[in-house]
Structure prediction request, 120 residues.
Amino acid sequence: MTTNKQLASMDEYIQTLPGDVQEILQKIRQIVQKVVPDAQETISYNMPTFTVDGKLLVHFAAWKNHIALYHIPAGDEAFQQELAPYVNDKGAVLLPLNKPIPYDLVEKIIRVRVQQKLDD
Prediction:
């Protein structure tokens, strides 16, 4: 579902997708905004991206069968086990579109990424 067209904004990216996928991406967007109210929205690598103080927080993208979140955060063993079913070998968390989206896990991912940014 990603496009080769150069996009100008997160809104433009989301509007190019089917309604059900738009809803998922808007919910992910709301989670990031709730956890990190001062995160800045941009497009990077033609994907919606959130940054904090100019540092990458998270990219997300819609694909044919899943939503991908990039980059996998480090975390304690319990967190890694929770992530394991969704992690691929390319450094992404893949959330299948044919299953309920684990929004609570998305929020945990964002919180861990924020902590990593604070520790940098």
In short: The first strand starts at residue 40 and ends at 44. The first helix runs from residue 10 to 15. The two ends are 33 Å apart (CA to CA).
